[in-house]
Write a structure and sequence with these properties.
218 residues; alpha/beta; TIM Barrel; 8-stranded parallel β-barrel; 8 helices; 8 strands
């Protein structure tokens, strides 16, 4: 039996109007979303600045911070009070005080791992956090192909800390969502498969239905 898997729509944009439009579309079928923020340094593309990020009251927001220096953004994160804030293991600062500050303010902590990062090498961070995000796409972009080899990290992380929430980010779509759901994940973030769909709500329902299918995983 696979775990109960949550599909979380991901928002990545540099345009305020497009950001609002995505929020309005997602509101039709979900109250949890991942908001992607980049600084133009850690990731080559720059998104909407974190000071312009917002969400409707009552939403559960996973804030995915693709930034080189988390300490420069922590004050704004604390004002926004997301449910979960994810920073990258590869950031240019020690994340230990960052995670402590988040926890002290009641914000769940998350660690994202780029494809080149081997989980045991960042075990001290994994021991601290509530969520690990297996990143399998391209930083600051949506619509790429999923690197399915990254699923091999999931049992490594699970064995280190079984109670962790483990998420996936990168290339999830209707063709691979079922295989990802069977890979012992808790959360699958979906970007362009939803944001570029003609009918995002129907696509969301199709993704959920695909996960719920039984039988052999192709």
């Amino acid at each position: 039996m696979i775990r109960s898997v949550t599909i979380v729509p991901a928002i990545l944009t540099s345009n305020k109007m497009d950001y609002r439009a995505q929020i309005e579309r997602i509101n039709l079928y979900s109250r949890r979303a991942q908001v992607d923020v980049t600084d133009g340094v850690f990731a080559p593309n720059e998104t909407l600045d974190i000071t312009n990020v917002w969400w409707p009251k009552g939403w559960t927001i996973d804030l995915h911070m693709m930034v080189a220096k988390p300490s420069q953004h922590i004050d704004t994160v604390l004002k926004l009070m997301p449910s979960l804030c994810i920073f990258h293991a590869e950031a240019r600062e020690d994340l230990t005080p960052i995670f402590k500050t988040l926890k002290d303010h009641g914000i769940r902590t998350g660690l994202a791992l780029l494809p080149s990062t081997y989980p045991p090498n960042v075990k001290p961070y994994i021991d601290m956090v509530d969520h690990v995000l297996i990143f399998a796409g391209k930083l600051g972009e949506q619509g790429g192909a999923a690197d399915m080899m990254q699923t091999e990290k999931i049992p490594l992380v699970r064995n280190m800390k079984p109670e962790l929430e483990i998420g996936w980010d990168g290339g999830a779509n209707l063709r691979n969502i079922r295989a990802l759901a069977h890979a012992d994940l808790d959360v699958i973030n979906v970007g362009s498969a939803l944001s570029k769909a003609e009918n995002p709500m129907k696509m969301y329902e199709a993704l959920v239905a695909e996960i719920d299918k039984t039988g052999v995983v192709l």
